[in-house]
């Protein structure tokens, strides 16, 4: 058997295709994925377009989910996810994930699922209040409630060791570890891997607030800058960003806490050379912040600088996206190849799980023929 440390390093991460990806996704996850992909430190990288999971709160609108599979994939390709290095696949087309979900459902209680903080807050957000009702819109749909189990299937089916994701996914990975551990213990095997989450190290990157200063950049709050926004809309969004309402005149002292321009600079500034290039008045962000706090630095100047930083990052993404948009057939082929590969890998895990549970009847005739005759003989003797 392989020693623990010679275990392959495998990444699995994913997104729900419910809309185009925005800067919060980029800084919280996509940028890191590209770095991990290019680091050469991982044996395998899998990126799952989680359309089944998206249906758990968009069941009435499968078209929205379907259309966004292509948007999300275009976002991946345009930020530098390289299909030769990373495997992009579609959840609903991978049958082993459904089968594993069904087995794992038995290894977790509804009480434990109810305590998952991410599920709790998402329930609240969607108005699934768990009232005694048969109305899907008001009650708690079973599919939505159990999506952490399906996410456990996603992660374990690929035998992922590492899940790069946002901070909000911590309870999901924790629940995944518990289920995997339970499976291995119960069926006395070493089939499933308990993964680690990898979250961004900078607070502004872990949870990027919206341009309006609200806690989170999110489509439903309408406070996003999308990776696919054109230069004109990025400009108007940056120029209308929430800053410091007490900073009325340029000479007034200003606050940088809760000021989106500085939060975004914290998140997106690449290095000090960007000051030399775009804002030579300051050597670095500390100097700029210090001047703002002291008074004498106007919001407009700060926003113009931030816009330069944003555009330096977004323009190449836009160009890349435009190229792929001209070749949708290629995008389809990438998804098809990635999904075919994922089907193979996950079927292998599924058969190992069935073997551990001794329910692989048609691979192992012995289970039925010999076990059954022994069992029949035993029961006849009684
Ligand atoms: N729940 C994740 C989100 O909402 C998406 C997701 C689905 C995922 N399956 C996954 C993330 C597996 C990491 C690993 O963003």
Which strand-content bin applies to the residues?
A: 5-15%
Order of helices and strands: EHEHHEHHHHHEHEHHHHHHHH
In the predicted model, the low-confidence regions spanning at least 5 consecutive residues are none
Strand adjacency order, main sheet: 1-2-3
- Which class best fits the helix and strand makeup? mainly alpha
Q: Over the alpha carbons, how many angstroms does the gyration radius reach? A: 24 Å
Q: Can you tell me the overall shape?
A: elongated
Major pleated sheet:
3 strands, parallel
Distance between the termini: 41 Å
Cofactors and ligands: tryptophan
What share of the residues lie within helices? 40-55%
What is the helix tally?
17
Describe this structure in words.
This protein has helices spanning 23-39, 51-55, 62-79, 95-104, 110-114, 117-126, 142-145, 147-157, 170-186, 203-206, 231-239, 260-268, 273-278, 285-294, 299-325, 328-357, 365-381; strands at 10-15, 44-49, 87-90, 162-164, 196-198. With 382 residues, the chain is mainly α. The strands form 2 sheets. A 3-stranded parallel sheet has the order 1-2-3. Strands 4-5 form a two-stranded parallel sheet. α9 (170-186) links the parallel β4 and β5. α4 (95-104) packs across α8 (147-157), α8 (147-157) packs across α9 (170-186) and α11 (231-239) packs antiparallel against α15. It is elongated, with a radius of gyration of 24 Å. Tryptophan binds at residues 12-16, 48, 50, 53, 151, 154-155, 163, 165, 169.
């Amino acid at each position: 058997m392989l020693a623990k440390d010679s275990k392959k390093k495998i990444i699995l991460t994913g997104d729900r295709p419910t809309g185009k990806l925005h800067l919060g996704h980029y800084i919280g996850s996509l940028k890191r994925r590209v770095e991990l992909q290019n680091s050469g430190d991982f044996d395998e990288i899998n990126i799952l377009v989680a359309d089944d999971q998206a249906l758990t709160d968009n069941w009435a609108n499968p078209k929205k989910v379907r259309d966004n599979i292509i948007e999300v994939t275009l976002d991946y390709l345009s930020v530098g996810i390289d299909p030769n290095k990373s495997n992009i696949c579609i959840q609903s087309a991978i049958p082993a994930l459904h089968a594993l979900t069904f087995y794992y459902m038995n290894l977790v209680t509804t009480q434990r699922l109810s305590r998952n903080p991410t599920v709790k807050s998402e329930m609240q957000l969607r108005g699934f209040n768990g009232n005694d009702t048969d109305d899907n819109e008001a009650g708690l749909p079973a599919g939505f409630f159990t999506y952490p189990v399906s996410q456990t299937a996603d992660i374990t089916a690929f035998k992922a060791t590492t899940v790069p994701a946002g901070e909000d996914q911590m309870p999901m990975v924790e629940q995944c570890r518990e289920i995997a551990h339970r499976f291995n213990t119960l069926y006395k095997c070493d089939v499933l891997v308990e993964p680690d989450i990898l979250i961004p190290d900078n607070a502004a990157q872990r949870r990027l607030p919206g341009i309006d200063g609200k806690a989170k950049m999110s489509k439903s709050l309408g406070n996003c800058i999308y990776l696919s926004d054109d230069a004109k809309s990025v400009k108007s969004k940056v120029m209308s960003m929430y800053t410091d309402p007490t900073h009325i005149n340029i000479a007034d002292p200003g606050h940088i806490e809760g000021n989106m321009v500085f939060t975004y600079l914290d998140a997106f500034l690449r290095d000090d050379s960007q000051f030399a290039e775009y804002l030579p008045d300051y050597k670095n962000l500390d100097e700029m912040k210090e001047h703002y706090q002291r008074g004498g630095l106007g919001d407009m100047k700060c926003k113009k600088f931030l816009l330069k930083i944003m555009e330096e990052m977004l323009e190449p993404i836009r160009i890349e996206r435009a190229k792929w948009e001209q070749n949708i057939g290629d995008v389809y082929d990438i998804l098809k190849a990635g999904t075919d590969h994922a089907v193979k890998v996950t079927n292998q895990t599924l058969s190992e799980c069935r073997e551990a549970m001794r329910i692989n009847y048609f691979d192992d005739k012995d289970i039925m023929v010999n076990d059954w005759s022994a069992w029949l003989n035993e029961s006849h003797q009684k």
